[in-house]
From TrEMBL:
The chain crosses the membrane at residues 21-41, 53-75, 96-121, 133-158, 165-184, 220-241. Signal peptide: none annotated. Coiled coil: none annotated. Residues 8-211 form the ABC-2 type transporter transmembrane domain. It comes from Microbacterium plantarum. Keywords: Antibiotic resistance, Membrane, Transmembrane, Transmembrane helix. PANTHER family: NODULATION PROTEIN J. This is ABC transporter permease. It is a multi-pass membrane protein.
Length: 250
């Protein structure tokens, strides 16, 4: 079986396993929309301005993918490493990319589902009205730029135990969300924070998605940053996986 077919098979079983716990799916789907209703909808100045509302919806969509990546990938990997079944699976033939890739693909599928109610609420209760083609392009790009937080989640899962992973993920979630301009637009940041924020992959993803959705210019540094983060974090995940395997199974 090729790595691709093995990845797709593992993705299917990951989704089936997740669906057996309905509250896990419901929580992942509802949480971003609930956060949008609590933190964005009460702000009249935001929901009545088309451009600002579109940027706010895009920011919360990026937040949906980031939270899914950190929690689903990070906590799942940490839990798997604590069970005897996973060490056995890792003694079998098969690329490690298939196992981690399947977990990332399954998480992307759930995050994509979580994006639907968020877009519906944003379209009904705010004045966000992006052009259809721009909206479609933004949806594709938010999925493409979600790889860095998924890989950060994998790093947390490969370096911490189940209990520690929860605490580390919660801290990382709020630091990345605030620093990435998802809760407060970067225009309100002081100069030093704006400069530091531009280095974060979440800020870079936000700039790309918001720029495409609103028709603004997408900064080149954001594109290069997402690519660089994806390559660097991906290489680190592979190294950590191999280091973990060497320490635990040889």
């Amino acid at each position: 079986m090729s790595t691709l077919s093995l990845t797709l098979t593992a993705t299917r079983y990951n989704l089936i396993e997740t669906a057996r716990v309905p509250i896990a799916v419901i929580g992942s789907v509802v949480f971003p929309t609930l956060a949008f209703c609590l933190f964005v909808l009460p702000q009249g100045a935001v929901v009545t301005d088309s451009s600002v509302a579109t940027a706010a919806v895009c920011s919360m969509v990026v937040f949906a993918f980031m939270s899914s990546g950190l929690f689903s990938v990070g906590l799942e990997l940490a839990e798997q490493r604590s069970k005897p079944w996973t060490p056995y699976l890792r003694t079998l033939p098969g690329s490690p990319l298939a196992r981690i890739g399947a977990l990332i693909l399954a998480t992307l599928a759930i995050a994509t589902a979580a994006m639907v109610p968020l877009l519906v609420v944003g379209g009904v209760f705010t004045s966000a009205r992006p052009e259809p083609l721009r909206l479609l392009a933004a949806i594709v790009l938010v999925i493409a730029t979600a790889l860095p937080p998924m890989l950060i989640g994998a790093i947390i899962g490969l370096t911490t135990g189940p209990k520690a992973a929860i605490a580390v993920t919660q801290v990382a979630l709020f630091l990345l969300a605030f620093g990435g301009g998802l809760f407060l637009p970067p225009q309100f940041f002081p100069a030093w924070l704006d400069t530091a924020s531009s280095v974060l992959p979440i800020r870079q993803a936000r700039e790309i998605v918001v720029g495409v959705a609103t028709g603004a210019e997408v900064p080149l540094w954001a594109i290069l940053g997402v690519v660089a983060w994806t390559l660097a974090l991906g290489a680190l995940v592979v190294w950590l996986y191999r280091r973990d395997e060497g320490r635990r199974y040889r």
